[in-house]
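Q: Could you write out the predicted structure for this multi-component system? I'm mainly interested in how the pieces pack against one another.
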Amino acid sequence: MTQEDLTIADPKMTAHGVNVFYGEKQAINNVSIDVGTDLVTAFIGPSGCGKSTFLRSLNRMNDTVAGAKVTGEIKLDGEDIYAPSMDVVQLRARVGMVFQKPNPFPKSIYDNVAYGPRIHGLAPQKADLDGIVERALTRAGLWDEVKDRLAESGTALSGGQQQRLCIARAIAVDPEVVLMDEPCSALDPIATAKIEELIHELRGKFAIVIVTHNMQQAARVSQRTAFFHLGTLVEYGKTTDIFTNPRQERTKDYITGRYG
Amino acid sequence: MAVVNDHTVKAFDEDLNRLRGLISEMGGRAEQALLQAMTALNKGDLDLAAQVVRDDRKIDALETEVEQLTVQTIALRAPMADDLREMIAALKIVSVVERIGDYAKNIAKRVALMDQTRSIEAIPLLMSMSSIVAELVHDALDSFAARDAELAVRVTVRDKTVDDFYNSIFRTLVTFMMENPKYISESAHLLFVAKNLERMGDHATNIAEMVYYVVTGGQMEERERGDRPEDGAAEQEQG
């Protein structure tokens, strides 16, 4: 794997020698990667390459999968997230996640966004909560579209709006990292463009890690790209380098459409 | 020609192969135009010279065709990595090959303006120079077809010989003009021919540099290139 030009002065998360097993099967093999604070990092690779598995190990979503085991070291601000002392609920507030299919709660738009801040006790007063909800929806680029119907159900929104609502929900608790697992794969091109614009806007406010099947999307939104194949990290580099002059043959074959 | 047949989408392979075929054809025509123009000059063959001028339209048409195919491929297939570099190089290479064709045409047009060139001693030098330039153009395009970075580097190194020839022909012609003032007009035309050949050598170098970029993803190091004319004659005497 090539590591040149990749010094990230102030990494938000660091992974070192990470292995993930589902029962007997090893899904991730010795992956080490740093995630920059002010950067959008894209994980690309063919189906089953382990990119989503690795993403899910960054906020311990794999804990919920029976038989899943993670070894190696993953740190958030230098703190081992798999340490026994780590509060997993707190961890997932700090490392939020947006999924492939928009999954708003069957609640009002307002309550969808207010849910996290409420359970984490971030808003003692109703006015505080109103402010948090408005700020999160504004950051997610959804406020102007929903401000007059906050009491309506989140599930009544269009797919693209629902996904932005989920992003608003994820960022309402002021996370430090936002993980996105193919956030646009169920959306049309316009809704996709809005999400990509949103990712661009949010860069610098949170560290963002996005898994995508759409290489053009990785090229458009990210500054760092990691290519996974068969559970290993083949190449990690500047997005411009990966897409114009990848160093590894396997990366080249994949991004030029020669894979398989 | 290195044929591409490893993309999952086979139609993409077909586009790339067609593009390579067009560029090869264009390069072949430019090389032929150069050789024919010089033969016409050497023999005073006006028919052949006129044919070179006519055939240049085909080179121009090929350039347009490559440009359209490249733009279309970029738009429809979103090429990446070496495929993307190949698209960019294709665009640049065809505009250079088109220039080579123009210089050949320019040489051919001079044939009719010179009626007494046989006795000018620079002619054999010009013929030798042109065969080296034709080789460079040929090898530069071969290096593109074969994805051969080493051959590309050798082309840039050999361009030095062309520059040496130019400087030598320049001095020969200037001396000849001083001694034979009645041949000044013909000699001046031949100076332009020499200058055109020298520029074609530079263009072959440009193609080779693009090939190097396509194959390696990097720029050719300065030390790998042939030296530019150092006495400045080739640079100062702008045609």
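A: Regarding packing and overall arrangement: The radius of gyration of chain B is 19 Å.
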